[in-house]
Known about the structure:
The protein is about 45% helix and about 15% strand. The protein has about 325 residues and is of the alpha+beta class.
Amino acid sequence: xxxNTICSYGAELALADTQLATLNxxxxxxxxxxxxxxxxxxxQGGIEQxxxxxxxxPIEQYQFLLLLHIATVPFFKEYYKDLPxxxxxxxxxxxxxxxxxxxxxxxxxxLDTRIFGWCRDCFNTRVKQFxxxxxxxxxxxLCQNFLYRNPDGTVDVVExxxxxxxxxxxxxxxxxxxxxxHIPEAGPMYRADIVASLHAMADFxxxxxxxxxYKAIAAYSxxxxxxxxxxxxxxxxxxxxxxxxxxxxxxxxxxETLEVIWRLWGRKEMLAGPEKAMEFEQRTSLQRxxxxxxxxxxxxxxxxxxxxxxxxxxx
Length: 315
């Protein structure tokens, strides 16, 4: 694979010539050994550790992972060739979003190990995109709990390994099939766009995986933390998103405070920690409100949201 081919693949991912030019040195360093070896291993996974064994500098590792990701565009096309036209182009934009984020974090266009794995899943169709949302179209429910539906439409959550025998069969339990949704950093989360994406996912499942009997749409995110109800107006897009389904805390109570800082600001601020929150840039009302909340000792936790399959038609 030559440099011109890399540039042509990068252009297909809407990466700028200036971004690609920063990868030329790592291409020259790895084109005869590490790059071809990693292309052979790409389908198997575990590449990140292999790269760390061959490149000692973390920034070089991350630059190489972006180079490798670009070089796998032919694999990406092969995975998407039998899916609806437009799906590949839609999710390919995710690469540019992450390269911009990584450039802000590390000073050069790259992909760190966490984001490289995510981008690989976008290329191999494990993660698909439908308008505003992305999803794992086949995924097990990840919460160690049991959900019971009440006649009034509410849901009771029983945590632990054992169901409540007095409640009958739970509507959802750990390991049940779901569609797991993700919210890319691609602009406002308008409710209409979110709902359209959910229906597009359901239509795709009916047409392309009709035997997949998913129980619900599931989301796991810091965006679902009810703390936002005290930080944002009821009309905000985040609150509208939370109102789409049944929201409850993840059983493991994961602390997402540093994740929120990274998402809203960046790596530098994440490393500084929440105690420095009032020193962070505050360009938006969300940043201002979250900074005050963090400075007062507030924390964020990951929550889950469930929309049962038969509830989709009401959205």
